[in-house]
Amino acid sequence: MRALDRIRNKYKSAKTRKPFFDFSLLAVVILLVCFGFVMIYSASAYQSNLKFGNSMYFLNKQIQAAGIGFVFMAILIFIPPRVYRLVPNWVYIVAAFLVMALLLVPGIHISSHGATRWVKLGPLPQFEPVELVKLLMIIYYARVLNKKQKDMTTWPSLFLPLAPLAALCLFIYVVSRNMSSALIVFIIPVLMITIIAKDKKKILIIWAALIALAAIGIGAIILLDKTGHSDVAGFRGGRILAWLHPERYSADEGFQVLQALYAIGSGGFFGKGLGESIVKIGDISEAQNDMIFSIICEELGVFGGFCVIALFAILIHRLFVIAGNTKDLFNALLVIGIMCHFAVQVVLNIAVVTNSVPNTGVSLPFISAGGTSVLLFLTEIGIALAVGRTIQIERR
After folding, report:
1. Which of 105, 183, 246, 277 is 20 to 30 A from 230 in CA distance terms?
2. How far apart, in Å, are the Cα atoms of 270 and each of 58, 74, 171, 297, 303?
């Protein structure tokens, strides 16, 4: 009996390894997507009924895109991340340029508000090429930084990886006239380098230089405005002036931001109630898109806004957990890039709505209406969950 007991105790204490799956991350994503459905319908029902005779027009498009996105996510979960290493680096760069070049093809691009962001290919739904470019750059820089991380201690080693990125961002701006997209594509790899670079002093100097350049640019626009030459600053300068003095530009550039601030202020702590927003009726155009956070705060209050921010904080934390526990540097960099993408978009969107930064067209992940956006974000979550499955956890 004693021998049998020893065998049983040994069997109970034996450790087995099994792949990790982050159900918490998946649950948060599903919750955000479903919450997005509710808010898109609430923000767009009135206007979409007037324009299209269907109050669920935008909601139906979002559900279709999310459905395709969940299919992509489910497939990518079971594709080993090492597959992305099999493709040569130059393919990702060339693909990014070719995807953006679609905006130069006559007859298939769609322009709106001074920018050319969308492409329409025959019967297929329109899509935003730059969203795919963001994913391509995350994979490309995960590969590049995986190989050069140990050597990134000198100035040339920090700047050379950014050369193709700078060229691509310039190309994005030239073909789309969309500064915000070009900036996001640039910021994500820079944040990836910031996180993994060993010489943090040089990184801090680079960020200080970028902030100084931005401050000089804003200072020049303010000076032009004071001397009566604000028209020289152009459209981008007008947005900065509207950011600094929204009440002065309440008839044009500052209108959206002022209405968003009124919406947030009128919502109080617990809001007016779901569906009870006033500004969505006509004061904020396309309320279901970039300014949807203001509708959330008006209907659900500051409390609802904090809950949304908390959900995104949990999502980013779960991505951080996956990146921190995978043993492969390339896999970790993939998830870090995805984490940076979510963080940048969430921070910029909320900062724009609260007038903390100049107005830019940045969507709120999973919540703003946008088929390409929700599809690509779900694709990135699929890649992150696939990386999570490479983590082996011990079970007794």
Report:
1. 183
2. 26, 36, 45, 8, 6
Show contacts of 233-239: CB within 8 Å, 24+ apart: 235/114, 236/179, 239/358, 239/359, 239/360
Predicted local confidence at residue 300, as pLDDT: 92
**What single DSSP character describes residue 22?**
-
Rounded CA-CA distance 42/58 in Å is 10
The pLDDT value recorded for residue 26 is 95
281: nearest Cα among 45, 61, 62: 45
Tokens of 158: 């920090």
C-alpha to C-alpha distance for 383 and 85, rounded to whole angstroms: 13
Instruction: Please give the structure tokens belonging to residue 247.
Output: 């009440």
Burial class (CB in 10 A: 0-12, 13-18, 19+), 11: exposed
Neighbours of 122 (CB within 10 A): 5
Contact 138, 165 (CB under 8 A): no
Query: Is pTM beyond 0.85 here?
Result: yes
At 291, phi and psi to the nearest 5? -95, 15
Query: Is-contact 326 391, C-beta < 8 A?
Result: yes
374: three-class secondary structure by DSSP: helix
Residue 11: what pLDDT? Answer: 47
pLDDT in tens, 13-32: 445 567 788 899 999 999 99
The identity of residue 265, as a single letter, is G
Per-residue pLDDT reduced to its tens digit, 216-261: 877 777 776 666 555 545 556 667 777 777 777 766 677 788 888 8
Measured CA to CA, the distance from residue 189 to residue 203 in angstroms comes to: 13
CA–CA separation, 9 vs 95, rounded Å? 57
Q: What are 362's two structure tokens?
A: 């940045």
CA distances from 20 to 31, 263, 395 (A): 21, 43, 11
Average model confidence (pLDDT) for the chain?
84
The number of residues making up the chain comes to 396
- Long-range (24+ apart) CB contacts under 8 A made by 271-276 are 271/297, 271/298, 271/299, 271/300, 271/301, 271/303, 271/304, 272/298, 272/299, 273/299, 274/38, 274/42, 274/299, 274/300, 275/42, 275/299
